[in-house]
TrEMBL record:
Gene3D superfamilies: VC0802-like (3.30.2130.10). InterPro entries: ACT-like_dom_sf, CASTOR_ACT_dom, DUF2241. It comes from the Bacteria. This is Uncharacterized protein. Residues 63-118 form the CASTOR ACT domain. Residues 10-58 form the DUF2241 domain.
């Protein structure tokens, strides 16, 4: 198992962002799609799902960049650094924190640009 990282700068320095295979969409339920979802959250208004884009032809197509660092759930700073860097580049993102890694969903048309921004952010953290 990878070392659990808590320090924000160390998380950014070790994030090694990778564009994952697949195209995804965020949708509002239905429960029938739950088995095909890569992620979900039950909100007061209903079930939010992250599904393969082919299951949601009218939804915005997203790509996912997985941050390879094993970030601690109580680690501070990486989400803010990643979202801030992308915002400064004019790239919207939806952050999903899982147990082992953080995942950054961005519009498909901005995936390569987002990856370049995150790689530059990582290089900056490593050289400090």
């Amino acid at each position: 198992m990878d070392k659990l990282v808590r320090d924000g700068r160390d998380m950014v320095a070790g994030m090694s962002p990778q564009l994952t295979e697949g195209r995804f969409a965020f949708v509002d339920g239905p429960e029938e799609l739950l088995a095909q979802a890569i992620g979900f959250f039950r909100e007061a208004e209903g079930l939010s799902l992250i599904v393969p884009a082919g299951l949601a032809p009218n939804a915005m197509v997203m790509r996912c960049i997985t941050l390879q660092v094993h970030s601690a759930l109580d680690g501070v700073g990486m989400t803010a650094a990643v979202a801030g860097a992308l915002a400064r580049a004019g790239i919207s993102c939806n952050m999903v924190a899982a147990l082992r890694h953080d995942h950054v969903f961005i519009p498909e048309t901005q995936a390569e640009a987002a990856l370049a921004v995150l790689l530059a952010l990582q290089r900056g953290a490593v050289t400090r």
